[in-house]
Design goal:
Blueprint (H helix, E strand, L loop, with lengths): L5 H5 L7 H14 L9 H17 L2 H10 L6 H17 L7 H12 L15 E8 L7 E7 L2 E7 L8 E4 L15 E8 L5 E3 L2 E9 H6 L1 E7 L2 E7 L8 E4 L16 E8 L6 H14 L3
Parallel strand pairs: 1-5, 7-11
Antiparallel strand pairs: 2-3, 4-5, 6-7, 8-9, 10-11
Length: 293
């Protein structure tokens, strides 16, 4: 298997924090997203590799195995188990050594040897699928049945999935040969935003019109959130483009139960039009008072 340096792929170092991994992943995922690179096989492969790197480096346990075993990190459990069996063998056979040749034969007995009379095991091919969802579909976890390669697979998609996110379903790819393991199934999610909200990670953004009188005098307004409307107090003298944060009213955090991002409301000042003559007189009077006339 060709070694892929996940750190180099994401443009980060081994000392990168979880936040730096996530930031780097989002940057490259957007760059190589299939929707931005239609019919570009190279970008498609790059996109898959970027998602694979993120899957490993964002998971502390997988990252630990990758740092220790490199390209063989997926077989870490077998390696560690084999090492334990080697220690047990040595402990039970005092005075006998378990040399490197014997150790190699032990692994060959597990994975097969090309010219030893045993059939070599071949891992099955990985499969790829795309699932299209609306933004509201991924606000809550949901179950779906996919038909892949003639098989019906019932899956639970966690809330908070992002557009372009790729997840791996282990052993649901093509079957292996000669007793080899199955391949994996990679699912890419295409999330269409059909709402008035703008999503940035776990946070949501919404522009809200604010009339002149409420902006000047203050008051209460109803604003939409993803789960319904709430009352929001407006301070007197609120300026246009003012942003307020509604904590916990954003999007669910992926695989983090009961954790949500925030909702950011930006006020867009809406001036009155088609003023009556009396309104014009009052505004003129206010202007004169303001200017000391």
């Amino acid at each position: 298997m060709e070694y892929i340096d996940y750190y180099q792929l994401l443009g980060i170092t081994k000392a990168a924090t979880a936040t730096e991994v996530k930031t780097a992943y989002r940057k490259f995922a957007r760059k190589y997203h299939p929707d931005l690179n239609p019919d570009n096989k190279e970008a498609e492969q790059k996109f898959k590799a970027i998602n694979e790197a993120n899957e490993v480096l964002s998971d502390p346990e997988k990252r630990k195995k990758y740092d220790k075993y490199g390209k063989d990190w997926k077989n870490a459990q077998q390696f560690e188990g084999a090492g334990q069996q080697q220690q047990n063998y040595q402990g039970q056979n005092t005075g006998q050594s378990f040399g490197s040749d014997d150790f190699s034969e032990f692994f060959e007995s597990m994975y097969g040897r090309g010219n030893s009379g045993r059939e070599t095991r071949f891992r099955g091919q990985d499969l790829n699928a795309k699932v299209s969802l609306n933004l509201r579909d991924v606000y809550e976890s949901q179950k779906q049945t996919l038909t892949v390669n003639g098989k019906h697979i019932r899956l639970t998609f966690p809330a908070g999935i992002e557009d372009g996110q790729l997840i791996k379903i282990k052993d649901h790819g093509s079957p292996g040969a000669n007793g080899g393991p199955n391949g994996d199934l990679y699912i890419t999610f295409l999330v269409k935003n059909n709402t008035q909200f703008k999503r940035e990670g776990n946070n949501l953004h919404l522009d809200v019109d604010l009339d002149l009188y409420t902006a000047m005098l203050g008051g209460e307004i109803l604003v939409a959130t993803f789960t319904g409307k709430v009352k929001l107090k407006v301070a007197p003298g609120t300026q246009g483009d003012t942003m307020v944060k509604l904590k916990g009213k954003g999007f669910p955090v992926y695989k983090k139960q009961n954790q949500y991002g925030d909702l950011y409301i930006t006020y867009r000042l809406k001036l009155p039009i088609d003023l009556s003559e009396r309104e014009k007189e009052l505004f003129t009077e206010l202007s004169n008072i303001r200017n000391g006339n």
